[in-house]
């Protein structure tokens, strides 16, 4: 039996990196954006202090504690059963009493209409241009003047982007098409320069091995020295009107 559970919810697709290698993906999460540049930009656009936050496609719940620090409540929606169980265990171990873990998907959020103030989706479902059903569901659950943040790779600049552009896993959609899609749907693009910063070379090698196919991963590791990687993000934001 495959270690990736078959999906029954609409619009759900597998994420082999986190679902096949969750412990290595945890290392990746710890190394990514170590100075929290993404959250700093988000906070300048919309505060989640005393707000209801939805982490959509929450995976194993890595980002929940950061929102829980000041949010009134955090809902985490994750369709993949093993990832959701890890998120539940994380929440229990950390005592995140204002956090709820829910099954669901971007196209089927099991929350009432106009029930959340902020939505955060990081590398989850919202890959243009095939994500309009999820955007319709987002529009249903977001409150008037609520803000949606969608985080993706910036494939124009940075070392990591140069690796992705060489990968057979990258889709055929161009950065221009992606950015035009989000602009068409009312989102504003914020480019964020950051990095991966690993504690050891072994950690970097392990993460590269789950993000890229074998031959390309070997080439990357042969050519790239050290324990850090230039990594840039696209943060798309939209405040929804009443």
From TrEMBL:
Record's family? Answer: Belongs to the methyltransferase superfamily.
Domain Methyltransferase type, by residue range, is 54-150
UniProt keywords (A-Z) are:
Methyltransferase, Transferase
Q: Name one GO biological process term.
A: methylation
Protein's name in the database = Methyltransferase type 11
**Molecular function in Gene Ontology:** S-adenosylmethionine-dependent methyltransferase activity
Please give the Pfam families that the UniProt record associates with this protein.
Methyltransf_11
Is Transferase included in the keywords of this UniProt record?
yes
* Transferase keyword on record: yes
**Which PANTHER family does the record match to this protein?**
METHYLTRANSF_11 DOMAIN-CONTAINING PROTEIN, METHYLTRANSFERASE TYPE 11 DOMAIN-CONTAINING PROTEIN
Organism equals Dictyobacter alpinus
């Amino acid at each position: 039996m495959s270690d990736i559970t078959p999906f029954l919810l609409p619009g759900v697709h597998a994420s082999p990196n986190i679902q096949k290698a969750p412990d290595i993906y945890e290392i990746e999460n710890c190394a990514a954006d170590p100075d929290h540049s993404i959250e700093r930009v988000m906070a300048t656009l919309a505060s989640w202090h005393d707000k209801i936050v939805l982490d959509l496609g929450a995976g194993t719940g890595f980002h929940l504690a950061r929102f829980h620090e000041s949010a009134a409540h955090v809902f985490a929606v994750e369709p993949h059963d093993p990832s959701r169980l890890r998120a539940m265990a994380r929440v229990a171990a950390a005592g995140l009493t204002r956090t709820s873990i829910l099954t669901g998907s971007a196209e089927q959020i099991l929350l009432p209409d106009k029930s959340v103030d902020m939505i955060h989706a990081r590398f989850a479902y919202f890959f243009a241009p095939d994500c309009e059903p999820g955007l319709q569901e987002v529009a249903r659950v977001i409150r008037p003047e609520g803000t949606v943040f969608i985080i993706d790779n910036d494939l124009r600049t940075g070392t990591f982007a140069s690796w992705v552009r060489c990968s057979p896993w990258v889709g055929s959609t161009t950065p221009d098409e992606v950015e035009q899609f989000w602009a068409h749907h009312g989102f504003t693009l914020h480019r964020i320069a950051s990095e991966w910063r690993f504690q050891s070379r072994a950690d970097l090698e392990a993460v590269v091995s789950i993000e890229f196919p074998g031959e390309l991963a070997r080439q990357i590791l042969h050519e790239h020295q050290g324990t850090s990687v230039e990594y840039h993000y696209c943060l798309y934001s939209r405040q929804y009107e009443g």
